[in-house]
Structures are given as C-alpha cells and as structure tokens.
UniProtKB/TrEMBL annotation:
Organism: Polaribacter gangjinensis
Protein name according to UniProt: Glutamine--fructose-6-phosphate aminotransferase [isomerizing]
Molecular function via GO: carbohydrate derivative binding; glutamine-fructose-6-phosphate transaminase (isomerizing) activity
Compartments (UniProt record): Cytoplasm
Catalytic activity: D-fructose 6-phosphate + L-glutamine = D-glucosamine 6-phosphate + L-glutamate
Principal place of residence: cytoplasm
Amino acid sequence: EQIEKGGYEHFMLKEIFEQPNAITNAFRGRLLPALEMIKMEGVQNNLSQFLEAKRIIIVACGTSWHAGLVAEYIIEELTRIPVEVEYASEFKYRNPIITPKDVVIAISQSGETADTLAAIKLAKEQGALVYGVCNVVGSSIARETHAGAYTHAGPEIGVASTKAFTTQITILTLVALHLAKEKGSLTKTEFNELVHELERIPEKVVEVLQVSDAIKEIAQSYAHATNCLFLGRGVNFPVALEGALKLKEISYIHAEGYPAAEMKHGPIALIDENMPVIVIAINKGHYEKTVSNIQEIKSRKGKIIAIVTKGDVVVKEMADHVIEVPETLEWLTPLLTTIPLQLLSYHMAVLLGKNVDQPRNLAKSVTVE
Ligand code: G6P
C-alpha cells in the first residue's frame, strides 16, 4: 500500500497532487488549440440531438452532482442551451418530465452509483439521449449510456473525491466548447481564448498546489472549529458546496456551502468570532459584491479565509488569511479554486487524527438506492 501511495501519507493527498496530470489526461486528444477545435466523439456522433436539445438535464450524486452544478453555469453561458441539474435520487422518484428532445448527462466517478443508474434507465425509457461522464472504464453507467467520455483521472482510492471532480469539470467544459463551436454561440476569439487557457490550467494547478504547507498552517488555527461556512458566487458557488462537503466528509466538522449573497438570508445569524468563513473571492463575477459580503462577515467578527486572485490587495486587507490562485478566465476558475479547499479539508482532518482515506459511514461507491 505504501508503494501505491507513491510517497504520500494518504491516497487523498496523492490524488490531490495528481490533478495537473489528471486534467491533462482528461483533455488529451480532445483539446486541440492548434487546430482551433475540440474533439469529443460522443458529442460529434450525436450532434443533431445535442444541438436541437430543448434542454440538458444533468443527473448525479455527491461530488459528481457538484461538478454538474459547475457545468450548468459553463454550458448555459457558452452554448445558451438551458441546463437543469438534479440529484439522481430525487429525479427518479418524482416522475420527471423527460422527452426525446432532452439530452441527459449522467456524471459518476465509479459508474456504479445505483441512484444515477436508475435515473439513466428512466431517461432512456422516455427516449432521451443519455451521455455519460465516468471515470471507471467499463463500469455499469459507461455501458448503460448511449455515448460519453471517460475522465481518465486514473484510479481514485480516497473516499473523498478530488481528481474525479476536477476532471469531470474539464470534460464538461470540453463538451460545452464543442457545442459552442458547432452552434456558433461563441466568437472565434472567445472560443480560442478559452481553448488556449484550458491548456494552461494544469501548470496553474501545479502553482496552486504549492500553497499546501501554508494551508496546513491555516488549518492549525481552525481545527477546533465545530462549524464552517463556505461562500462563493456564480460558477464558484458550487465550488463552495464542494468545499463544505469535503470538510464534512473527512473531518466531521459541520460545514455549509452557500451562495455568498444568500448569507444574509440565514447563515449570517451564525457568524461570530468562533465561525471560520471560507470565501472564494477571486476577481471575476461580481468581485465587488463579494467584497461587501466579506465586510458583513468582518463586522460580525467572523474569521475569514479568502481564496483570492494573485496580486489581490482589497480582500487581503480584510481577511484573516488569504490563499492566492493564478489569474484565469472566469469559466475555468473552479479548476483552480477547488484545490485549496481540498487541501484545507485534508489538513484539518489529518490534524484531527481522522481516517482521511476511509471516513466513517461513507463508501466509495454506493450501489443501493
Ligand atoms: C459516494 C462517494 C462520493 C461520490 C458519490 C457519487 O457518496 O463517497 O465521493 O461523490 O458517491 O459517486 P459517483 O461514483 O457516482 O461519482
């Protein structure tokens, strides 16, 4: 097992650090900047169904559902096709309206999640095209779907999903770009800018990973916390949800993810000097509004850990701790902002002596509905 961990203390840490390679493997052969194109075979082979789709319905569970929420922002913005994201378990049991004009995208690391599999079967019965995004090759979901793309993240052993999440987002970004190109919903310049920038994401992830030791120190100050709040806006709101889920899963600290602006409708009541608030405050998507949310936390003495864009000065003045991520295009920021949150929950859990790779009560794949 030590050999499999490749010198890392835990599989989770190894998998966090594998993300630059995992993302590269996810887009290899698919992201073709020199040719100014994207090659997603499963999309190409079903192009008319995708382009004529009245809407795309994404079904998934857990972390994969969060990747679906990120993709909702990206696909809608880049392609202007309406997207809905559903918990697979809820979808199946509420007699959903699905027509042959819908495209269903099922996301699953293991490819074995029973609820997701059940949602796929229902969607197929109603005549929808079902596209799968799976990590495990030859898994049940990969076999049940009409078309799809593997994430190629490599085996994920840690129960808390990390590299599966960022590679799922990578694949769904490629799907969005492929459709945008075919649909003409982006200008050539916008398309090429995104494609070139996506190619640079792995090296930027390498840069973010360098903050691991600094995050370990921050974790030391907050490992005693009983509650944590994670805030983000826009495409980084689901990243806040994922950050909270990671912390709950492995450190057993209660955490909630919220859209930053919704804080005033509830969670603000919880804020005092004992409440760490992790805010994704990058310089994209209504940055000034996030800054005023941070002010609201500060005036209630909440402790602020902010994820900011490199070179930020405004939030740095206000926050108790800042973690920098490199500048990138708004739609690609989740691939960077996710990393410090994974590291934060990892270091907190290790400090608390928890079983990071196999947290209590959780399973890597859930094969019961
Ligand atoms: C379990 C795992 C999670 C995972 C979820 C969905 O709860 O512990 O890490 O996100 O299932 O799994 P899937 O394999 O379908 O992505």
